[in-house]
Amino acid sequence: MAGSANRLVGIVVVSHSSRLAEGVVELATQMASPDLALHAVGGTADGRLGTDATRIATTIRAADSGAGVVVVADLGSAIMATEAAIETLDPELASRVRISGGPIAEGAVVAAVQASIGDSLADVLRAAESAAQLDKGVTR
After folding, report:
1. Which residues are tagged catalytic?
2. Quick one: average pLDDT of 23-38?
């Protein structure tokens, strides 16, 4: 296990909708350690749908305890905004940020669980991405 309670991998949920990002964080928080830095960033600064690289960068900084940050995002342009945000970070922090290609809700939940138990940045990322393969028990 990679970290202690004060050095857990942080999770950032990026969505075009602030309500969606906040809802995913609300769900993931139910499964996470209270020590986990789990943050939502969605919409534009003026409340419209969209993404804002500056706000994403600020949120990544807030989520990092030194163990790294996994970003889970909703759509391709949220990924592009996150990539732009990472380019503005200092190189040391930027080297500890990973973007997950996994689903936003399931990915955030499983990432939060893994981060809460102190898993490494690579393991938390792998968990978020593997959420795409979760069996939801659909029978038809």
Report:
1. 16
2. 95
- Sheet with 97-100, strands from edge to edge, namely 38-42, 10-15, 69-73, 97-100
Q: Domain segments of the chain: what residues?
A: 10-133
Is 91 in a helix, a strand, or coil?
A: helix
User: What are φ and ψ of residue 86, in 5° steps?
Assistant: -60, -35
CATH of domain 10-133: 3.40.50.510
Instruction: Choose between 29 and 140: higher pLDDT.
Output: 29
Cα–Cα separations (whole angstroms), residue 65 to 41, 42, 72, 138: 18, 21, 17, 38
Helix (H) or strand (E) holding 112: helix 104-116
- Please give the sequence-ordered ranges of beta strands (E in DSSP) within the chain, or none if there are none: 10-15, 38-42, 69-73, 97-100
Rounded to the nearest 5°, which phi and psi values hold at 53?
-60, -35
pLDDT beyond 80 at 94: yes
